[in-house]
Amino acid sequence: MKDKVRVKGQLSVYLQWPLILSVLLIIATMVLGAVNLKAAAVMSAFTFLYILIALWIYLYQRKSVLAGLVEFSSEYAWIQKQLLYEMIQPYAIADDKGRLLWMNQSFAELLGVDHHSRKSLIALFPGVTKELLDQKEEEISIHTEYDNRNYRMDLKWVALKDASALAISLGKEFTEERLLSIYLADETEVLHYKKEINNQKMVAGLIYLDNYDEALESVEEVRRSLLTALIDRKINKYISAMSGIVKKLEKDKYFFAIKQQYVERIQEDRFAILEDVKTVNIGNDMAVTLSIGLGMNGESYSQNYDFARVSIDMALGRGGDQAVIKDGEKIQYFGGKAQQMEKSTRVKARVKAHALRELMESKDRLLIMGHKLADIDSFGAALGIYRIATALNKKAHIVINDVTTSVKPMMDRFLGNPDYPEDLFLNGSKAAELVDANTILVVVDVNRPSITDSPALLKMVKSIVVLDHHRQSSEIIDNAVLSYVEPYASSACEMVAEVLQYIADGIRIKPAEADAMYAGIVIDTHNFTNQTGVRTFEAAAFLRRNGADVTRVRKLFRDNMAEYRAKAEAVRLAEVYRNEFAISTCPAEGLASPTIVGAQAANDLLEINGIKASVVLTEYNHVIYASARSIDEVNVQVMMEHLGGGGHRAVAGAQLEGVTIDQAKAMVKKVIDEMLEKGDVS
Fold this sequence. Notes:
Layout: H1 10-33, H2 37-60, H3 62-86, E1 91-94, E2 100-103, H4 105-111, H5 121-124, H6 130-134, E3 139-146, E4 149-159, H7 160-170, E5 178-186, H8 188-199, E6 202-209, H9 212-217, H10 224-240, E7 245-250, E8 253-259, H11 263-268, H12 273-276, E9 290-296, H13 301-317, E10 322-327, E11 330-335, H14 347-361, E12 365-369, H15 376-391, E13 395-399, H16 408-411, E14 425-426, H17 428-434, E15 439-444, H18 456-460, E16 463-468, E17 482-485, H19 492-503, H20 511-524, H21 534-545, H22 550-556, H23 561-572, E18 575-577, E19 581-586, H24 594-605, E20 613-620, E21 623-630, H25 636-641, E22 646-647, E23 651-657, H26 661-678
Parallel strand pairs: 9-10, 12-13, 12-15, 13-14, 15-16, 16-17, 19-20
Antiparallel strand pairs: 1-2, 1-5, 3-4, 4-5, 6-8, 6-9, 7-8, 10-11, 18-19, 20-21, 21-23, 22-23
Helix pairs in contact: 1-2, 14-19, 15-19, 15-20, 19-20, 19-21, 20-21, 20-22, 23-24
């Protein structure tokens, strides 16, 4: 350490200024002497006196000046320390482990401890973790809680060279390489008022009666008004309990508005009105079911209403008897436990058929596409649309990339057949080369863009038509000019068979095409035992009249020995979870299409008494394929949606990437536990 204090910078120049001025006065005296010697002599006396005084001040009073500066500096540091200590904002300093080294008065009062306390930030605040401190980022801002109040904590790392001045101000010595400065801002009231503002926002809602006409027809005419009145009363009572308003738009449609603060409550009771309205019984054979759509957190009331319309469309598209909430971009589903009732009328099929014909007549080329790893339902529906195109004298191609073993026997009947063009089947890249302004794309048996056989075509073609029987999810083909999605239909082939009967007169289906469509219905309904209605049998009868051969179809889809053994092994390895759910793994070795075998094994597991749902996992090309099946008590679509998949109530699936079979099993079990806890299983 040096004994003398060195003066540097501007202060050094300031102290040397009298000496500099002395030199200037000497020069001025010399110039004055050239003009007048007497005046120069007088000036010399004054200059000499000034130099003596300047030297005395610089040499003998310098220490006094420095002492004054040191005293001022110490007083300034003390004031700075007091200001920091008495600062209203809570402020503290911690080491790199999060242990408090110093805190001001506000910080100590907030914690309710002495300002010499050495507690750890990790122990005091739940938002501060060891991993957070290890990041060593220059500035970190987190939201945390302490003593039932909310705080924003700003953390800033300070290097040791910067901390030296801080140490002087605080009167403390710090030995750590880096120090952590902590600022706390109480945001309890701000968050409270933000919550109040959110709670007061308007939520728009729509309620539709799914089966109003069918329920009325099942009750005596004199009691129909009573049934309607009881339903109105339950809906009005439910909305009034939330201080909301409800307006009946049509005989089976209602609009309501509630405050956002009640949304959490109705989510917790999982829209009790869905089950409550089913208890209305005055002799009606059919229980009334509702669909509810809510829109919230839009930029305006009108946008909330638009969200509600999107929600109700999704609820109806997923089969009804459920509620859908659209919260900005986020979509939530509730309910959907009831079996979807088949519509007896074919009016919608006829309207969609005429709309499809108008679209097809306005274009020159037709591309038909199903989902990845197409099954026979997707293949048969594509052939049905191909027959419509040829009847309208339009050039058509079926887009299919990977041919599974279930499709290959049927596809072989068309390859090399002189009745069909050589370019009937194209892969995605070749189909993309044919796209132009006069191309229309018909998507069958799928409504999720990510699992279509060639997703790129959806962006290339402007005119898109969707025909599907799977329930819709939040991921939909949103640029379709015509969408015909009916979850009550057993299969896409059933829907196309109905469209064939209305789109034009005199369309004749060839036997090979009728076989493919009939096979699609048989496979998807598991031999007419799953999701089969009156219209399913009518479609099958139509195909039978057009040449479908039951025996020929049965022979085409018999299993080979390796597939049968794999299916039997999947059944043998099945684990019964929670006494009601069968979970198994299907071996894929030696199988051309193991995912098809896995789906068949899932169907077979439902034949076991007491099993409500089955899930079979199959590993194929480093992806885990989950096939889920149920009869009527479990909505496997909801189950698979938790895993990123979808489908419809009784038949669904998902694809899991980056996980092992054991991890996939654990994920399935977790979803089952959550569904049981929430009451999503009948």
